[in-house]
Design goal:
The structure holds three protein chains of three kinds. Chain A contains seven helices and nine strands; from the N terminus they run βββαββαβαααβαβαβ. By secondary structure, chain A is α/β, with parallel strands linked by helices. The radius of gyration of chain A is 18 Å and the shape is globular. Chain C is of the alpha/beta class. The chains are: A alpha/beta, B alpha/beta, C alpha/beta.
Chain lengths: ~240, ~290, ~270
């Protein structure tokens, strides 16, 4: 049996912020970070608050730039370095390979909950009817009451918004999924639903990189924990 | 050429150099059918709006042997027509007529005679506003560019508005035409009823706008097509009844109010046409009345 | 449909617009210095900066309303040929501008004919292209009014009777009716109430995605840029000082000026 392919490779990544508005103060974040995530694997970033877990996730997504090192993401036959790719290349990579589920739902005011999820599927390239089928399935599995589906989520509770956000992140078939505390404001039932979704993604060969403060969730999904503290530039 | 000595003016009022300048503009206009040629319009001894453009064109082309007819709304005896005819009688001494067939030059405001014009005749129009696009595009620089580049979609916007508001193209005079397949042209405020007469007319048609300082022309036998939509084709005004005096149908009729009790009749707007027919024995429903 | 149009593959790998070395001096004073970028179909590029940063000059140059001192603007025509838009004849350029390009003004009154009906405003470009069937033109105008969420009962009303948001949506419909591939927008939400802005932006996002439009949008509002654009260019004193993915530039700004710009935004 061949070992699962490495879909994400982080190699000697370093990042600091230069705060020009504070006299050019240098705020180191992480340095010399290296790890891999293979297909079907869930790697969890560990360490206390402020260790740079979220920043690292954002670097992998290309949301933060990195000062040194490379973030290689498999794109079919190619491998793309997020740290060096053109914006245009990054947009394509995010559309087809690399997805990010943040803690907060940042959406357009008027679009209904189900359409937000469907749109994510369509952007990925799924046909609309398939996207809608998956969206219904996901919203059901995440216990979002059906009467909410056609409403815009601006007035939803934090937990409901987060579940819409998760559905949006999970609806397509991106190879690499970045999860920033997806279960933070969920109750036990819904945490379990999210764990199920993650395990399903793993079985289908998705590489997952996440931050989970909930130890129970972490234990159930993590194959490995990468302790960010040891890369912490501030240490 | 000499004007009648009594007048004290050069023949046809304008000095010879001015006439040459205007003739050059006319020749250019004939060479580019429908194109508005700028010219150095002169102050004339009549106010703008009274036909100063047409008068200058006529003055530049008229010769001692010409026979002049002047009409206003089709009539030879309204104030404007009478004044202009007298002006040329006084400054040229040429023969004048009311008979369309006898005239070599016909200066007109608002109508084209009903009797078909023939080769050798010149129809001179008095034009208030020569620019058909001005309604929607007030910038002269822009409308000139639009003419130069043949960008005429805007004219259809006006016709679209007509249909949207009235259910049909309600523009009934100043109805825009394409000349020789190239230039969009305003036929002056003639009723659209007369537009088909411009098409391939045997006569030379000259247009003079005095205040706006523009001359344009339709040479004989030139295509003149009224703009329209495929599903709202160009149509001329139709009249339900024939002329009450001469019984003519298929001509443009004026409404004449007969008294203050609301009695009215419809009669030929072309007075010469009407009189000629009656002289030939034609009679309408009210044929013995005198309008 | 939208996904197919968005997918930057095959033909779309070639840029639609290639700008290089674009420079404009007003006498001694630079308005825009050495600006260059590529724009592909389906991409939305936001240009941000303060008043006087040169972003409006850049947009005027792109729209050929201003002649550059130096530099080129190359555009991929529908036949596939890259043409320098400055070298097009005036007739070609004007045709391009009213068919394949659109321009959305901040002040809708500049982009609309305020005295003619909404339907005629939308239909004008079609008539300019030679469409001569009233019924068809009107049907397309109705369709576009619906797409920009204007009640079709208003088709015969002039934009003068419309609210600011409606006028702006009408302006967008008027531009998009010929299915242009490139649309330039100058502060399209400026001067609108916040709630109206959100609706307009949402509509814009949908149309851009559905039609696979390439858009250059000038705005001083970073929230607008974040919501609608893929890429961002930050301008200052006529130069582009920072450029990249929109979320990257806004979340991890590098240049002191960009950091100042981002930190000056009120968080809601």
């Amino acid at each position: 049996m061949t070992p699962p392919a490495t879909l994400l490779n982080v190699d000697r990544v370093g990042k600091s912020f230069t705060m020009h508005l504070q006299g050019g103060a240098l705020l180191p974040v992480v340095q010399d970070v290296s790890f891999d995530v293979a297909a079907g694997e869930c790697v969890v970033l560990g360490g206390p608050s402020g260790a740079g877990k979220s920043s690292l996730l954002k670097i992998v997504y290309g949301n933060y730039r990195c000062d040194s090192g490379s973030v290689m993401v498999r794109d079919g036959e190619d491998t793309i370095d997020v740290a060096a790719a053109s914006p245009r290349r990054m947009i394509r990579l995010r559309r087809t390979r690399l997805a990010y589920v943040s803690q907060f739902l940042r959406v357009i005011p008027r679009v209904s909950a189900i359409d937000i999820v469907v749109q994510a599927a369509v952007e990925f390239g799924l046909p609309e009817d398939e996207g809608r089928r998956r969206a219904r399935d996901l919203l059901t599995r995440l216990n979002v009451p059906e009467q909410l589906w056609s409403l815009a989520p601006a007035t939803f509770s934090g937990g409901e918004q987060q579940r819409i956000n998760i559905a949006r992140g999970f609806v397509a078939d991106h190879d690499v999924l970045l999860l920033d505390e997806p279960t933070a404001s969920l109750d036990a039932v819904n945490r379990a639903a999210v764990v199920d979704l993650i395990l399903t993604k793993k079985r289908r060969g998705t590489a997952l990189l996440g931050i989970f403060h909930d130890e129970d969730v972490r234990d159930r999904v993590a194959d490995r924990v990468v302790d960010v503290t040891r890369f912490s530039a501030a240490a | 050429m000499n004007a009648p000595a009594a007048s004290g003016y050069n023949f046809a009022y304008l000095d010879e150099q001015t006439k040459r300048m205007i003739r050059r503009a006319i020749l250019k206009a004939i060479a580019i059918p429908g194109y508005q040629v700028p010219f150095a319009s002169r102050e004339m001894p009549m106010p703008y709006g009274w036909g100063t453009g047409g008068v200058q064109v006529t003055a530049s082309i008229i010769g001692e042997d010409d026979v002049l007819k002047v009409i206003d709304q089709g009539s030879d005896d309204t104030t404007n027509a009478v004044s202009i005819r007298k002006f040329f009688e006084k400054t040229t001494g040429v023969a004048t007529t009311t008979a369309t067939g006898e005239a070599t030059i016909i200066q007109t405001r608002h109508r084209i005679p009903e009797a078909p014009l023939t080769e050798g005749q010149v129809l001179v129009y008095q034009v208030p506003i020569p620019e058909p696009l001005r309604f929607l595009e007030p910038r002269e620089t822009e409308t000139r560019t639009m003419h130069a580049l043949e960008e005429y979609g805007l004219m259809h916007v006006k016709l679209y508005e007509d249909i949207a508001r009235h259910g049909h193209i309600a523009t009934s005079y100043d109805y825009p035409v394409m000349v020789a397949g190239r230039y969009l042209m305003d036929p002056s405020p003639t009723p659209k009823f007369d537009n088909p007469k411009m098409h391939r007319s045997a006569a030379l048609q000259l247009f003079g706008a005095g205040r706006e300082k523009r001359i344009y022309a339709i040479p004989p036998y030139t295509d003149v097509v009224s703009l329209d939509f495929e599903d709202h084709p160009f149509e001329v005004n139709r009249f339900d009844t024939p002329c009450a005096l001469c019984g003519a149908s298929g001509v443009y009729l004026d409404e004449v109010v007969l008294d203050d009790r609301g009695r009215r009749m419809f009669v030929c707007s072309d007075t010469d046409h009407c009189e000629t027919r009656r002289a030939d024995g034609h009679r309408g429903a009210d044929g013995d009345a005198t309008p | 449909m939208s996904a197919a149009l968005l997918a930057p593959e095959a033909d779309d790998d070639r840029p639609l617009l290639t700008v290089s070395g674009l420079t404009k001096y007003y006498g001694e004073r630079p308005g825009c210095l050495d600006v260059g970028f590529d724009l592909h179909p389906g991409e939305v590029l936001a240009i941000v900066g303060e008043s006087g940063s040169g972003k409006s000059t850049l947009l005027s140059l792109l729209a050929c309303r201003l002649a550059p001192t130096r530099g080129t603007i190359r555009y991929r025509m529908r036949n596939g040929a890259m043409r320098d838009v400055m070298s097009l004849t005036e007739a070609e350029r004007r045709l391009l501008m009213r068919t394949d390009w659109g321009f959305v003004h901040q002040d809708a009154a500049q982009g609309l004919r305020m005295r003619v009906s909404a339907g005629a405003n939308v239909g004008e470009r079609l008539m300019a292209l030679g469409q001569r069937h009233y019924g068809d033109i009107r049907a397309q105008a109705k369709d576009w009014l619906q797409r920009v969420e204007i009640d079709t009962d208003r088709i015969d009303d002039p934009p003068r009777s419309f609210s600011g948001g409606m006028r702006q949506r009408l302006q967008i419909a008027r531009n998009l009716v010929t299915a242009p591939r490139l649309v330039l927008m100058d502060e399209p939400t400026g001067g609108l109430d916040v709630s109206v802005q959100a609706r307009l932006l949402d509509l814009l996002r949908g149309l851009v995605a559905d039609l696979g439009l390439a858009v250059v949008i000038v705005t001083h509002d970073l929230a607008v840029a974040r919501l609608v654009s893929h890429r961002l260019m930050v301008m200052r004193q006529g130069s582009v000082i920072e450029t990249g993915l929109t979320d990257q530039v806004l979340d991890d700004p590098r240049e002191p000026y960009t950091q100042l710009l981002v930190s000056s935004v009120l968080q809601v």
